[in-house]
Specification:
The protein folds into 2 domains: 90 residues, Hypothetical protein yqbg; 82 residues. It is built from 4 helices and 8 strands. A 5-stranded antiparallel sheet has the order 1-2-8-4-5, with no helix packed on it. A hairpin with a 5-residue loop joins strand 4 and strand 5. The two termini are 14 Å apart.
Length: 184
């Protein structure tokens, strides 16, 4: 599986104001540090390399495959949309697959990965035998980030603010555990 970020999140799931309230910081002299800690907390849990294996806020990705498998499983729930599927046909030309050829299963489902399957009486087109012959562009992420995820990030930022270099507290892992996506 080859993933490429196309459009990064336009928003951060935590505001500086929220973090300052959580950390009980009134002055502005720590703002730069807190913004950096927010970014570190988001990076720790967001995206394909994050501990949750989810898209926390809306972001657009390309999933590149060598061919059309029977089912295309999309990473990074929750899936917001399948924006486009392109493929290299047997003649070597890039084509856009009509949305009538496929069906999206699990759109918006927060608990599992979504999938793309052939629509009734449809078959996947033949692709040229080249790497990354199929590209699925999709948008994933929460419209509203669930409170346990936000609370875990606040705990991480607060802990790192008070204890530079210390690992995240166990409460963070407990809050995030139900939201972690298993890829097995």
């Amino acid at each position: 599986m080859n993933l490429k970020l196309i459009t990064p999140p336009a928003t951060v799931p935590l505001s500086l104001r929220e973090v300052k309230e959580h950390c009980r910081v009134d002055a502005d002299d720590s703002d730069q540090l807190l913004v950096a800690l927010i970014a570190a907390a988001v990076q720790h849990i967001d995206g394909p390399t994050g501990t949750l294996g989810r898209a926390i806020t809306p972001q657009t990705w390309d999933l590149r495959l060598g061919w059309f498998p029977a089912e295309i499983t999309l990473p990074l729930p929750p899936l917001r949309s399948v924006d486009q599927i392109t493929y290299v046909d047997s003649d070597g030309a890039t084509q856009t697959l009509s949305s009538s050829v496929y069906k999206v299963v699990g759109l918006g489902d927060e608990g599992r990965r979504a999938a793309i399957v052939e629509a009734h009486d449809q078959t996947w087109p033949t692709t040229r035998a080249v790497p990354e012959a199929v590209t699925v562009r999709f948008t994933a992420g929460y419209t509203t980030v669930p409170e346990p995820i936000k609370q875990a990030m606040k705990l991480m930022v607060g802990h790192w603010f008070d204890n530079p270099g210390a690992p995240a507290p166990e409460a963070v892992a407990a809050l995030l555990a139900p939201w972690r996506v298993s890829w097995v």
